[in-house]
Design a protein that fits this description.
4-stranded parallel sheet, 3 helices, alpha/beta, 3-stranded antiparallel sheet
Length: 119
């Protein structure tokens, strides 16, 4: 595949074919934005690889900080219902927490650590 220089991720048809040939217990991924309509990425080629990763994993875990909620990007990756678990930070508003739970996601709020130690 093509090595996307900004992130070091392989993209393109060969990368997708390779991903589809493996099985993963867990796919841990991020996204550029998340709305009630699903997950989004700013790069179409990366979104295709992410869809392939989701298809070969038993469990899909999304790690998204609160600033990504309510944002859309160019390429839609998937629906919220295709994610099993979502990890975010304590800045996530209650309305989003409810939406995620209603979509069937297990929500984990990670503790935020400052330079002085755990909050």
């Amino acid at each position: 595949g093509y090595l996307y220089p900004r992130t070091g991720v392989l993209v393109g048809p060969m990368a997708i074919e390779m991903v589809r040939s493996v099985h993963a217990n867990k796919a841990i991924m991020a996204c550029a934005g998340l709305t009630a309509d699903g997950l989004f990425n700013a790069n179409v080629l990366m979104a295709e690889v992410q869809r392939a990763m989701m298809g070969c994993a038993d469990e899909v875990i999304l790690v998204v900080d609160h600033s990504k909620f309510g944002r859309q990007a160019l390429a839609r990756i998937a629906e919220l219902s295709q994610v099993d678990r979502l990890v975010s930070d304590s800045g996530l508003e209650e309305c989003w927490r409810g939406l995620l739970r209603d979509a069937g996601l297990a929500l984990i709020i990670a503790p935020v650590e400052s330079e002085d130690g755990p909050a």
